[in-house]
């Protein structure tokens, strides 16, 4: 049977055929044809402005690791690529054209090959195609910190680490000096302590989604902007320590702290350490508006502090509000009292 001559079809027929293809098939076509690439800009395979998921996986059929890319809430497969050593021979890639070979995986009909020395250039090309094809600027990256590409430029960049060592996270963040850093970091747990001058202070959001109870040391010494935690053990004294550091001017980056579950928190034990004021609508608004939108699903009612209390930093008059109820703790710094 002779090959199907797709390019001889009328434009409308081409459009309908491409729309029935999977994202993985379309990604492959866009790497071969500029007209097809332009055509796909008007199509949609998932929700508007979807998140791209970039994850480190087990090898297909060798000792070399590979990465896979999926998209949207359903995480539809788009491509997988394998990083091979510089010594391995494979066809030349002129202008970083994507070299691929058939795959045994039903999810990915092809997987792409890239020499270890070309990873950043390769990813730059892939990233541009993904942004254009799916009309998105959002990505979530998960995998070994030592293997993640340093050339990610998506505006909304979320990094997911399983259980990193603090020193390895510090090293990774330092390696991004002058490059795009993650907007947010998701960790299940972190081992060790971050430095006082940690680069994590430049990250908009840190989400600690622990499967046990996090050490209060991490919380009390947190030096970033926004912290969202699921569990914290023995939080009362850690709350006091963190708030005192903010009052002393040691946590000027801090904007918000949210703990959704934990051991029983005692508001009296925390508030007795401070001179606090009851909420007044003349002093601030009821609802806190974060300066940077979170890319986590935080319930809107979390930001309602009409039943919280206020403390004021004497050095500059900056106001913060505290709300403690059972197993929840929230702390917001109001750089704009009436947003």
From TrEMBL:
Protein origin, superkingdom: Eukaryota
Record protein name field: F-box domain-containing protein
């Amino acid at each position: 049977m002779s090959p199907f001559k797709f390019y001889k079809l009328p434009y409308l027929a081409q459009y309908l055929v491409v729309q029935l293809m999977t994202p993985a098939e379309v990604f492959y076509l866009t790497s071969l044809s500029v007209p097809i690439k332009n055509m796909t800009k008007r199509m949609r395979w998932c929700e508007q402005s979807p998140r791209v998921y970039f994850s480190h996986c087990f090898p297909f059929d060798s000792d070399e690791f590979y990465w896979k890319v999926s998209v949207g809430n359903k995480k539809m497969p788009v491509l997988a690529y394998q990083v091979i050593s510089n010594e391995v021979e494979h066809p030349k890639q002129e202008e970083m054209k994507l070299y691929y070979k058939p795959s045994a995986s039903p999810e990915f009909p092809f997987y792409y090959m890239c020499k270890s020395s070309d990873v950043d250039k390769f990813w730059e090309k892939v990233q541009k195609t993904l942004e254009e094809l799916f009309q998105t600027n959002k990505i979530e990256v998960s995998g070994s910190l030592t293997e993640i590409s340093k050339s990610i430029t998506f505006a909304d960049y979320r990094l997911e680490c399983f259980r990193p060592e603090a020193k390895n996270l510090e090293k990774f963040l330092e390696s991004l000096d002058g490059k795009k850093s993650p907007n947010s970091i998701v960790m299940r747990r972190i081992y060790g302590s971050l430095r006082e001058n940690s680069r994590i202070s430049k990250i908009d959001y840190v989400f600690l989604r622990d499967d046990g109870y996090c050490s209060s040391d991490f919380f009390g010494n947190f030096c970033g902007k926004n912290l969202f935690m699921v569990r914290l053990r023995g939080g009362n004294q850690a709350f006091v320590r963190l708030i005192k550091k903010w009052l002393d001017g040691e946590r000027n980056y801090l904007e918000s702290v949210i703990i959704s579950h934990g051991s029983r928190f005692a508001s009296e034990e925390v508030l007795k350490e401070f001179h606090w004021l009851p909420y007044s609508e003349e002093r601030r608004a009821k609802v806190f508006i974060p300066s940077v939108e979170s890319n986590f699903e935080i319930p809107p009612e979390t930001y309602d502090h009409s039943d919280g209390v206020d403390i004021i930093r004497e050095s500059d008059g900056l106001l913060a509000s505290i709300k403690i109820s059972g197993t929840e703790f929230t702390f917001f710094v109001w750089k704009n009292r009436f947003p």
